[in-house]
UniProtKB/TrEMBL annotation:
SUPFAM superfamilies with a match to the protein in the record: alpha/beta-Hydrolases (SSF53474)
Protein family per UniProt: Belongs to the AB hydrolase superfamily. Bacterial non-heme haloperoxidase / perhydrolase family.
Lineage of the species this protein comes from: Bacteria, Pseudomonadati, Bacteroidota, Flavobacteriia, Flavobacteriales
Protein name (Swiss-Prot/TrEMBL): Alpha/beta hydrolase
Keywords, ordered alphabetically: Hydrolase
Length: 277
């Protein structure tokens, strides 16, 4: 419904973020996953507004209807973008909810700016705490996986996201819960994103270490994850995140894939509302 002008520019162009703002009450900010947009939150927006919350859902730089600069696809910059939204909309006592890549923005925002203005945090199918396998981060994801993703996108982005979109929701297993039309809609949203942003964000969510950020969480926090997530496996992410966050509540959704908002929207909405109401 509008645009926020961030504090960053590229050459002479201001970088603007598209956002939608609904309802009234305590504000909930929804941060989407890669490579989608705020549109992934449609059912959550309805549920939250009907439950008496104000909901702000925005498009990350490079995605959806936001500006598509050539740079700035690192988590420090994206956390700064989130702060610009919070400051310019004068939001107080906020609830931050991030899905997949968006969980990284929640973590980096709190790690960088603190949680004085945040009442609760929700990480859904999130990439936190650290996906990349290193000498001090065992049982994680090999770097070749992320390099392979970038190679597939560079070679034929349309074809890559055709298969990725099905894996996103475990379509072969769960086509009784999500239709092919939704998978195709997600594909069209992904294809609207910046190619440069799409590629750079693979490095951002795949190779950024959020472990110190999660140690800064001194607020009630909820981790929601599907136990059949083929994109960001629970053992690599959600389980480890909840082990780090001091005041962490875990909601493991049985049979849930990565894209819970499309296949398990009722369970997801219930978990969110039970936590924040």
């Amino acid at each position: 419904m509008g645009f926020i002008k961030t504090n960053s520019k590229e050459n002479s162009n201001s970088i603007e973020l598209y956002y939608e703002d609904y309802g009234s009450g305590q504000p909930v900010i929804l941060i989407h996953g890669w490579p989608l947009s705020h549109r992934m939150w449609d059912t959550q927006i309805n549920a939250l507004v009907n439950a008496g919350f104000r909901v702000i859902a925005y498009d990350r730089r490079g995605f959806g209807q936001s500006s598509k600069p050539f740079t700035g696809y690192d988590y420090n910059t994206m956390a700064s973008d989130l702060k610009d939204i919070i400051d310019q909309l004068e939001l107080k006592n906020i609830i931050l909810a991030g899905f997949s890549m968006g969980g990284g923005e929640v973590a980096r925002y709190i790690g960088k700016y603190g949680a004085d203005n945040v009442s609760k945090a929700i990480l859904i199918s999130a990439v936190t705490p650290f996906l990349l396998e290193t000498d001090n981060n065992k049982n994680a994801v090999d770097a070749s996986v992320f390099d392979g993703m970038k190679g597939g996108i560079s070679k034929d982005r349309a074809d890559f996201f055709k298969s990725f979109g099905k894996n996103f929701v475990n379509f072969e297993k769960l086509n009784d819960k999500v239709g092919l039309a939704q998978v195709e809609l997600n594909w069209s949203i992904a294809m609207q994103a910046s190619l440069k942003g799409t590629l750079d964000c693979v490095d951002a969510f795949g190779k950024t270490d959020f472990r110190e950020d999660l140690k800064s969480f001194d607020i009630p926090s909820l981790v929601i994850h599907g136990d059949d997530d083929a994109i960001v496996p629970f053992e690599v992410s959600g389980k480890k995140a909840c082990d780090i966050i001091e005041n962490c509540q875990l909601e493991l959704i049985e049979g849930g894939p990565h894209g819970l908002s499309f296949t398990h929207s009722d369970e997801l909405n219930k978990a969110i509302l039970n936590f924040i109401k």
